[in-house]
Amino acid sequence: MSKHIQPDLRYEIPFWQAGKYLVCGIDEAGRGCLAGAVYAAAVILPPEQDIIHILAGVRDSKQMTPYQRMKWESKIKETAQTWGVGNASNLEIDTIGIVPATRLAMQRAIENLNVSPDHLLIDAVLLKQMEYPQTALIKGDVYCLSIACASVLAKTARDREMVEMEAIYPGYGFAQHKGYGTLQHRKALQKLGACPIHRVTFAPIKQCEEESLFPE
Predict the structure, then answer these.
(1) pLDDT tens digit string along 117-134?
(2) Range of 141's domain?
(3) Mean pLDDT throughout 15-21?
(4) Does residue 64 sit within a domain?
(5) Which residue, among 70, 41, 68, has the nearest Cα to 154 in the 3D structure?
(6) Distance between CA 14 and CA 10 in Å, rounded?
(7) 111 part of a folded domain
(8) How far apart are alpha carbons 170 and 174 in whole angstroms?
(9) 178 within some domain
(10) CA within 20 to 30 Å of 174's CA: 31, 34, 89, 112, which one?
(11) Is residue 132 part of a domain?
(12) What is the rounded distance in angstroms from the CA atom of residue 200 to the CA atom of residue 90?
């Protein structure tokens, strides 16, 4: 089971050995949510093999508790050569679609780095609009430490925004479910309808809107 796998430097080391020291791991958070922006993070770790011990508690963010993610967020930022976070809003998602919006968030994260990467290691996708050499890795957040670090930064940044959205749009439970389509969230949608940060092109939101227009 992947939950027992500790991400390592198997993908970074060959690039370091080839003199490409700015290897950037990239991942997203919130792609499947019904509300809020999709976030992405980019992380360049120092080309040092002992970094795996310094960041020994970092895993795919989905396999970490909220407390663990918050704890390791600070350590990742402190340890990385550079890191960047970017997002694409729910309005951009509704306009261009979730996959292009996810790529846009990743591009913005890369643009927020303070150096230009030598190579991109990306969880599952390629950024064809960017000219950097790049590799898409299936389950990259499970096996690749740079991508796992990016997954943590993307997730904590997005969760923080959704907690803030709870204060602006109370009643939906954003601080609890972070915009995912939980039963609590769906019940709130049935009661309150969509709010300005919902992704209105997503099927559950459209269904909710249709039911509110045509009640039984």
Answers:
(1) 999 999 999 999 999 999
(2) 2-169
(3) 98
(4) yes
(5) 41
(6) 7
(7) yes
(8) 8
(9) no
(10) 112
(11) yes
(12) 8
